[in-house]
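Quick one: structure tokens for this chain, please?
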Amino acid sequence: MDYLDHLEAEAIYILREVAGQFEKPALLFSGGKDSITLVHLAQKAFKPGKFPFPLVHIDTGHNFKETIDFRDWLVAQIGEKLIVGSVQDSIDQGRVREQKGKNASRNALQTVTLLDTIEKYKFDACIGGARRDEEKARAKERVFSVRDEFGQWDPKRQRAELWDILNGNINQGENVRVFPISNWTELDVWNYIKRENIALPSLYFSHEREVVSRNGQWMAADQCLQIDNEDIITCKMVRFRTVGDMTCTAAVCSEAVHIDDIIKEIKASTISERGARIDDKVSEAAMEERKKEGYF
């Protein structure tokens, strides 16, 4: 078997274990390449039947238009249920307070919206596309990662997963975050996307775009960045290695317009894809602190 076949089989096994062990699972869908890959794997795991879970998107209101358009197109194509949790609704309800200032971001506010959505629909397992190679805090996760009744993560409570035995036993109020592609790398994902001919948002491929320099990185020029007279907007050929909130997701200068070009670019890169995520640079333990609070 090809190594991609092994990774695919493992992910499908995990997805089926979720369906067998939990009463109300959900697949967290960001519109990025990893969650799109998960949807493709779920189709292989469960079609021609319906998915045993809805897709859940936590919308910051500052997402790329290309991401939202692709999300809606994909949901229409596969005919599955989509639930959208809105950060703007959380702000309007006084559940969170929006940051102020030029570098304000809604990214951290997603945690409250996510936890409220989990509570509203009583989800006991949330599937996501996080991978161990992305960031050191994510490398500490198990495939089944237990969250307490407050949605918080304690790395010291991680369970052993010997011989691929996955333990979904949880107490009332707890939930599990599930990572079917935890053992994949960014390069594995792109090789799989190429092999399976999976459609992606145009953001991932090099295109000419208006950008502005922030914190030494190129950000998409949009009013959610609170652009003022000090900012110089310029056009560059860029693409995005990771897709998130526009206020914290930087582009990379690139000429990669085809998948083969992207694969070559990744092989030559010396930084991880999350090197373009400004929210990870708040502190050395930025991701781990957010995860402890309930961030995915």
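The beta strands are 25-28, 55-59, 82-86, 125-127, 144-147, 175-178, 207-214, 217-220, 234-239, 250-253.
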